[in-house]
Specification:
Elements lengths: L12 E5 L4 H12 L3 E6 L2 H15 L4 E4 L5 H14 L4 E4 L14 H29 L3 E6 L3 H4 L5 H20 L5 E8 L5 H7 L20 H12 L10 E4 L13 H4 L4 H10 L3
Parallel strand pairs: 1-2, 1-4, 2-3, 4-5, 5-6, 6-7
Helix pairs in contact: 1-8, 3-4, 4-6
Length: 283
């Protein structure tokens, strides 16, 4: 945990979307410990404020919080205007996401849009908004996007998320070329199993069985600090010659052909199994 040079991210002002909980919160904690200036955004301001207070007690640092629904392009622009009034960003972490298990042929248009809105459109709004400001000012910057293994392999029963994350990987590769001459890097991370409370309630199969770690050659879930350390490296100047790449951190799961435990069993679920899954989902 303490292998990095102290102050690795000193002087870097970084925005993490969905930074109040889960992996976003873990990354924020690590970035702060390495000297970053942190801004976090999300839809629930009370969660953001609680996280900021926790970080303030832990690090003595002021963390800026902004309530923002990144699915709304005008909200994103307002947020970025507010951030730039204090100081420009040096880095953006596209972490906010939404996902749930469902039979794709039964998804409503609204359900599909709810995932694409936050995962794909929101990420595009944040990335182009930040990039535009950097390019106009002649500033360098780094965009890190959190993907899923399904972006690389596909995944049954979470198709809108797989579509959205694959789109973000295409954005990462494309803008790495287009914005490279401007000194702007784009990188991505595709995590395997890093349990969070939100994901556990939406993505753990409740119907006909689950194999959480049996599809992981290392036979364990990832620790949040392992992901946070990777992301800190990619955001730092140590990774200054890396752009357009997606780094997989999954304990080898991808090479066993599984993007998430439980998918094989779900292929044979009955209508009753799916009903149990729907009932177990948070409302």
């Amino acid at each position: 945990m303490h292998n990095f040079t102290e102050g690795l991210l000193t002087g870097k002002r970084i925005l993490i979307t969905g930074g109040g909980t889960g992996l976003g919160k873990s990354m924020g904690r690590r970035f702060l410990s390495l000297g970053a200036n942190l801004v976090i955004c999300g839809r629930r301001t009370e969660v953001l404020d609680a996280t900021a207070a926790e970080f303030s007690n832990e690090f003595g640092a002021d963390v800026e919080t902004i309530g923002c629904d990144i699915r709304n392009a005008s909200d994103v622009e307002s947020m970025l205007d507010r951030i730039w009034q204090t100081a420009p960003l040096d880095g953006l972490v596209n972490n906010a996401a939404g996902n749930f298990i469902a039979q794709t042929h039964k998804l409503s248009a609204r359900a599909i849009d709810s995932v694409l809105g936050i995962c794909l459109h929101g990420t595009a709004y944040c990335t182009t908004g930040v990039g535009r400001r950097w390019i106009d000012a002649g500033r360098p910057g780094t965009v890190l996007s959190i993907l899923t293994l399904s972006a690389l392999t596909g995944a049954p029963f979470t198709v809108p998320s797989a579509m959205a994350k694959a789109g973000i990987e295409a954005m990462t590769k494309s803008l790495a070329v287009e914005w490279g001459p401007k000194g702007i890097r784009l990188v991505a991370v595709a995590p395997g199993s890093f349990p969070t409370e939100g994901a556990a309630t939406r993505l753990t199969p409740q119907g006909g069985g689950n194999d959480t770690i049996q599809g992981v050659p290392l036979r364990r879930n990832g620790d949040h600090i392992e992901l946070a350390n990777l992301c800190a490296f990619l955001m730092s100047d140590l990774a200054g010659y890396i752009t357009g790449e997606t780094v997989v951190i999954d304990g080898g799961r991808r090479y066993l052909g599984g993007s998430r435990g439980g998918s094989t069993q779900m292929l044979d679920w009955t209508d009753e199994d799916w009903q149990r899954q729907r009932t177990a989902m948070p409302k």
